[in-house]
Write a structure and sequence with these properties.
Elements (H helix, E strand, L loop, with lengths): L1 H29 L10 H4 L32 E3 L37 E4 L5 E3 L4 E8 L14 E6 L4 E8 L1 E2 L6 E2 L4 E4 L10 E8 L9 E2 L12 E8 L9 E7 L6 E8 L12 E6 L2 E9 L2 E9 L4 E7 L2
Length: about 325
């Protein structure tokens, strides 16, 4: 009868509503988490941020999981770097690194490989401690050697800093500190000169690591540690080969006008020679204006090129795999 049909209809409608509600809940629970939109170029070269948890995420995810950029797997990485040492010539002078005898250079085979950088300055200019530390040597290196040769650095100061780092200042005209003295960043420790084997007045500056500070081959490239002036960045180039042997190669680096393929400037560099196997990288250039750069060199396997970006006060890391 009509009453029975209406009752059956209500039961069917109720069951359909329950079924639809169950399907809706099931689809909601299985819905994928929202995808992360494209990151800005600079951020994408450094880390990836995981999606923020939603009400349906199970279990909850951390709000920001940092994944380090691997320069061996990417075209390049842009990182903060370890620019912890201030200019030892003081805050006012521009950090002027002599380009003809950079770290690892042999000056076209005319000299021994260079284990530091030469900072251009005048005779008698003050030399400052670039960070707090303990003076562990102050005097001439005619008896206590920090190289294979006596009186190589002339008047010399060596400071021990935190985390096993040492800074070395050579060819000084005067020494104003003593071994055992603690210094703060910005303290005057010496004066620029040309003692030892120096040709002309300048400050020879080194960064060393490891347990034996007298080890001539414990140096690191100072351009990876000296604070970058405002408006410039640095570039570290590593050539990844099957052997760890260092072979000097000539590099050409081109800088382009922003957003164009028009050449703006050209830089020349060399990779480290044999004897610098303790260094992970093979060449470093600092004081580079931000922009787009092309690295190029040739070897027995042919031409190698890489396009990279440089950002102000950041380090661009590049690894080029060789056959």
């Amino acid at each position: 009868d009509l009453a029975s049909e209406l009752a059956d209809s209500r039961k069917t409608t109720s069951m359909n509503r329950r079924l639809n509600l169950f399907l809706l809940l099931l689809l909601t629970a299985c819905a994928p988490a929202p995808s992360v939109g494209a990151l800005p170029e600079a951020a994408a070269t450094q880390f990836v941020i995981a999606a923020e948890p939603t009400a349906t995420s199970n279990p909850p995810l951390p709000t920001a999981t940092l994944i380090a950029c691997d320069p061996a797997a990417e075209e390049f990485c842009i990182v903060e770097g370890n620019f912890i040492f201030q200019n030892p010539l003081g805050p006012d002078p521009v950090l002027a690194i002599a380009g003809n005898y950079s770290y690892g250079s042999t000056d076209e085979g005319k000299r021994e490989p260079h284990n530091g950088v030469d900072l251009q300055s005048r005779e008698g200019a003050p030399v400052f401690a670039p960070a707090p530390g303990l003076v562990i040597f102050a005097g001439t290196d005619d008896k206590t050697r920090f190289a294979q040769w006596a009186d190589y650095y002339g008047n010399l100061v060596v400071i021990e800093h935190e985390e096993g780092l040492y800074t070395l200042y050579g060819h000084l005209s005067k020494v104003h500190v003593r071994a055992g003295e603690r210094v703060s960043g910005g303290d005057v420790i010496a004066a620029v000169g040309h003692t030892g084997i120096a040709v002309g007045s300048h400050l020879h500056f080194e960064v060393r690591t490891g347990g034996d500070v007298t080890d001539y081959f414990s140096t690191q490239n100072p351009e990876l540690w000296l604070a970058l002036p405002e408006g410039v960045g640095a570039l570290s180039i590593t050539l990844d080969s099957k052997t760890n042997h260092k072979i000097q190669r000539k590099l050409v680096i081109w800088r382009y006008f922003a957003g164009t393929d028009t050449l703006q400037a050209t830089y020349y560099a060399s990779t480290y020679p044999k004897g610098f196997e303790q260094n992970k990288e093979d060449s470093v250039l600092s004081n580079l204006p931000p922009g787009r750069y092309r690295i190029a060199f040739t070897d027995s396997t042919g031409l190698h090129e890489r396009m990279v970006n440089v950002e102000a006060r950041k380090l661009t890391q590049v690894v080029i795999k060789l056959k």
